[in-house]
Design brief:
single chain, 105 residues, mainly alpha
Length: 105
Amino acid sequence: MASRVNNHFEIPDNLKNIYGEIEVSPIGVLKNYALNVVQGKVQKYEAENKHFEKKYECLFEKFKKKNQNLKNQEVFEEDDDLLDWEFACENLKYWRKRAKELNNE
């Protein structure tokens, strides 16, 4: 599905010429830019996920269950890491989905 952008902008002639020479459209350039940004986000959250996997020597779900089973015990660092790790996992899932959408267009 495509949306029409209401903002009017003009592509300078020298850019039009370059796009023509390298056989790429302005839409292709925008798509590639978006894909690069999205892939950067995927890499960021993958790195965070790997950091926590290495630190706790397990996957997120196992760590989450372990943390939930600690009744009446607070380990502040682990509680904070759980929230940060969960945030990283959710964002990783979200940005991987967006990357897949961009690749399928």
